[in-house]
Design goal:
The chain has 289 residues and is of the alpha/beta class. It has one domain: Vaccinia Virus protein VP39 (Rossmann fold, 3-Layer(aba) Sandwich). Helices cover 41% and strands 19% of the residues. It has eleven helices and nine strands.
Length: 289
């Protein structure tokens, strides 16, 4: 859906794929299940470091965290290991299973980490959750088929003084509709044919990364070798990017205006500039709210 009171025609900084409301979806959970086979301590520590950097803290003891769209469960695990009480949910049943598997491996029977299936678009479900010190949703809300409603719902779960930490696809006037077509094609292809879209993207991204490294005076693929700064995997990220459907996007300015109109202030923005990928945001709700 478009932002309330606006349209994609009147506001080209917004992008909504009308057909993204269909039942046809990328199998996010299947992708994360494969990722769990390569998850190790190094990746977990990288995820923890990224969260501490994002929140500007050395520990997260005593914080209540909501992980919307927990996916593999990596960041829910990182939050819990850093001392937070965690509530994880995902719409995708296999993603819920992945998060549950990490809880079983590392924090079996831990009452301070809840894992369940739910939707950020289900207002009745959200009412049962209460509010949280950190509401975290990284690369998720633009895959719901109703991004603006999902953002609004997530923002409403932030407690006074709390933080909303989200990452959303960057809107590009020409390339965003093109990527929408690629993603829609991916989910319609038979499974054996889908890597035919992933590997060309990896080749393109690899060459572009090597070129950028050389121009900056670094060894080729330096950025790729440290891609795990959030503990993630290049191939699984690429598969998520090429196949991630539903798909919506917005400019940083549009996201900031939308969320600040709902009582939160931007504390941190890490934009991708002219490139595709996710802009990263941290908003804070006033203690007076």
């Amino acid at each position: 859906m478009s932002a309330p009171g606006s349209s994609t025609q009147a506001h080209p900084e917004l992008y909504t794929s009308e057909s993204s409301r269909t039942a046809q979806r990328f199998a996010f959970g299947e992708n994360w299940r494969r990722f769990l086979s390569i998850l190790d301590e190094t990746r977990i520590r990288a995820a923890e470091a990224s969260l501490l950097d994002l929140l500007g803290r050395e520990r997260l003891d005593g914080l209540r965290v909501l992980d919307i769209g927990s996916g593999s469960g990596l960041f829910s695990l990182a939050f819990r290991r850093l001392g937070a009480t965690v509530h994880s949910f995902d719409y995708d049943a296999e993603s819920v299973a992945c998060t549950g598997e990490l809880r079983r491996r590392f924090h079996a029977d831990d009452p301070a980490w809840v894992v369940e299936r739910g939707s950020v678009l289900d207002s009745e479900y959200l009412k049962l959750l209460g509010t949280f010190d950190v509401v975290y949703s990284w690369g998720v809300l633009h895959h719901t088929g109703a991004m603006w409603q999902a953002i609004e719902n997530a923002a409403g779960l932030v407690a006074p003084g709390g933080t909303l930490a989200i990452a959303l696809y960057n809107r590009q006037r020409l390339l965003t509709p093109l990527w929408s077509a690629v993603k829609r094609t991916y989910v319609r292809l038979p499974k054996p044919c889908r890597p035919l879209l992933v590997w060309p993207y990896l080749l393109y991204a690899g060459l572009a990364s090597a070129g950028a490294d050389v121009l900056r005076g670094r060894a080729p693929w330096s950025r790729w070798r440290v891609h795990g700064h959030r503990g993630m995997s290049l191939y699984h990220d690429a598969r998520d990017w090429v196949g991630g459907w539903p798909f919506e996007a917005a400019t940083p300015a549009a996201v900031r205006a939308f969320i600040e109109a709902r009582g939160l202030l931007l504390r941190r923005l890490k934009p991708v500039g002219w490139r595709h990928g996710c802009n990263e945001f941290a908003f804070v709700r006033s203690v007076a709210c």
